[in-house]
Amino acid sequence: MIVRGELTEEVVTNLGKKITAKVNQGDRLRAAELLLKVHGAFKERLDVKVDSSTLFTETLEKIWSNDVGASP
């Protein structure tokens, strides 16, 4: 498995020689991110439900409470 570093890949050196090397850290990290994304570990959006009447009432109460203490 790539994430655990168990897989290797063939890499060509500057001299043209093929060697077997472990998968680099960046590729391992990307594989882990994609695996987590597939399993729903990352949530792309947040679903929020707000009762508008309650929100309106709470807003008015805040406004009224500030007006009571304010001097003209």
Question: Secondary structure elements and their pairing?
Answer:
Layout: E1 8-12, E2 18-22, H1 25-38, H2 52-69
Antiparallel strand pairs: 1-2
Question: pLDDT below 50 for ≥5 consecutive residues: which ranges?
Answer: none
Total helical elements: 2
Q: What's the total count of β strands? A: 2
Structural class per helix/strand content?
Answer: alpha+beta
Largest sheet: 2 strands, antiparallel
What is the gist of this entry?
The chain has about 70 residues and is α+β, with helices and mostly antiparallel strands. It has helices at about 25-40, 50-70, and strands at about 10, 20.
Task: Please provide a written account of the structure.
44% of the residues lie in helices and 14% in strands. It contains two helices and two strands; from the N terminus they run ββαα. The chain has one domain (8-69). With 72 residues, it is an alpha+beta fold. The chain has helices at 25-38, 52-69, and strands at residues 8-12, 18-22.
List its traits:
single chain, 72 residues, alpha+beta, two-stranded antiparallel sheet, 2 helices, 2 strands, 44% helix
